[in-house]
């Protein structure tokens, strides 16, 4: 049985610092970012807003997508967010995390 995967973008604010990650448990991972449980980039740059994510039925495809997105120009990443979430709403705000 294959593990599902999520590729996601956390932001510090609209047009702010972006973090691209991959996980098999999006709710837990977002909670970790929001509570700065794991010290690192997202804590340092205050990336606590989930602005974009995609779900994949195969974690390996999600990993490949994450690596691909990390190579994108910043403007392309901003366009991806704007296309799907023009108000930069925190997509996790209704999750209780």
Task: Describe the secondary structure blueprint for this structure.
Blueprint: E1 5-11, E2 18-23, H1 26-34, H2 41-44, E3 49-56, H3 59-70, H4 74-84
Give an overview of the whole structure.
The N and C termini lie far apart (28 Å). Strand 1 (5-11) and strand 2 form a beta hairpin. The protein has a single domain (5-84), classed as GIY-YIG endonuclease (3-Layer(aba) Sandwich). The protein is α+β, with helices and mostly antiparallel strands and 97 residues long. The model has no long low-confidence stretch (mean pLDDT 93). The protein has 4 helices and 3 strands. Strands 2-1-3 form a 3-stranded antiparallel beta sheet, with helices on both faces. The longest helix is centred in the middle third of the chain and has 12 residues, at 59-70.
Walk across the major sheet and give the strand order: 2-1-3
Number of helices: 4
Strand content: 15-25%
What integer value in Å does the Rg equal?
13 Å
Indicate the CATH class: Alpha Beta
What distance lies between the first and last C-alpha atoms, to the nearest angstrom?
A: 28 Å
Summarize the helix and strand pattern as letters.
EEHHEHH
Number of strands: 3
User: What would the principal axes of the Cα set say about the shape?
Assistant: globular
CATH topology heading: GIY-YIG endonuclease
Mean pLDDT: 93
Q: Tell me the name of the CATH homologous superfamily.
A: GIY-YIG endonuclease
What's the domain count? 1
Low-confidence residue ranges: none
How would you sum up the major sheet? 3 strands, antiparallel
Which class best fits the helix and strand makeup?
alpha+beta
Helix content: 25-40%
CATH architecture grouping: 3-Layer(aba) Sandwich
């Amino acid at each position: 049985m294959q593990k599902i995967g999520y590729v996601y973008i956390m932001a510090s604010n609209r047009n702010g610092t972006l973090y691209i990650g991959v996980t098999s448990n999006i709710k837990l991972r977002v909670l970790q970012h929001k509570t700065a449980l794991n010290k690192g980039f997202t804590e340092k740059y205050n990336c606590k807003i989930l602005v974009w994510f995609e779900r994949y039925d195969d974690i390996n495809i999600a990993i490949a997508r994450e690596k691909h997105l990390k190579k994108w120009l910043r403007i392309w990443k901003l366009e991806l967010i704007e296309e799907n979430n023009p108000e930069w709403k925190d997509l996790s705000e209704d999750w209780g995390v």
